[in-house]
Task: structure prediction
Amino acid sequence: MRILVLGGDGYLGWPTVMHFAAKGHDVMAVDNYQRRQIALETDSEALIPTPNLDERAQVFYQQTGKKVEIKIGDCADMLFLNTVVKDFQPEAIVHYAEQPSAPYSMKGFHEAQMTLQNNLGVTFNTIWSVLENCPDCHIVKLGTMGEYGTPNIDIEEGWIDIEHNGRTQKFLYPRQAGSLYHTTKVLDTDLLWFYVRTYGLRVTDLMQGPVYGLSTEESQLSDDLLPNFHYDDIFGTVVNRFLVQAIAGVPLTVYGKGGQTRGYLNLMDTLNCVELAATNPANKGELRIFNQFTEQFTVNELADRVHRVGNSMGLDVKIKNIENPRKEMEEHYYNAKHHGLIELGLEPHFMTDDVLAAMIEKILKYKDKIATRKIMPRVKWS
Result:
């Protein structure tokens, strides 16, 4: 297949590019290095130095013999994106090209405005580029489980049947995001659903939980192929942050009571989920939604796991509850369905002690690059 990956320089984007190329697909990666620029501006650079996309593609070619085409440009620029889509004629577009940080989106007006305009603008441009150039192309959009919030009922897989006054209809599951970033993802879904209904687009929206992991099959070939691994409060996901804190001797920062429950998945499962979605496309005129995670944990449970594994490896790991910088429920009901991707053939990688220990071993190689000033929360919701 011809697969266009928007946001191909990201934590998920670059591993996805390599994964599809290794499978023999014709892959183009597009990025404007926005995340790298934000990381520089906020003192939130990744732990492991990563080459730019052209350099990464060259290393990947040297290691595998597989070529990846690179385009540097801004997907919020319709002329640029429309030209790329017209020339490449993708059969699938994997859309990661958004400002991905909830804390950054809550930092202030400028950050909020950029997040809103960029995220919705890129999704809008992607829709119209497909309509004008390749209307049968399948859009695989990365959503987030954060769209749903923490309702006091089971979270269905994207859709819910409502009965009211003796009549029934299926609707998008009610969503109540906890940050502006997550709200842009809600609006993305609504935008896509409108164009699916109106123009018959084919779209898969992957409601993904927080991702952890450092290595994939392809990145093990060279450290220059590793993803952008963040451990700071802006871009670092909670498991990745906890592992770095354990190595740095910083108590694991549990926000508030630590009962916040979410669905998590290994980076390798993200790749497999996206592949399953792309190679089993949605029907024309269908918005297909999958809840993309494999296990549910509270923050306390995650901290306990890292504490146990880290201490078994000779680290002096401590846990500390700190004031929660976010506005969120710290104890709540949470039961989310996630059967669609399993039915397509997903074989999950679970968060075993061995998996956490392997990540610790890898991160230890870069212990001297950890900057502890980046760890504590620097953004408050209110």
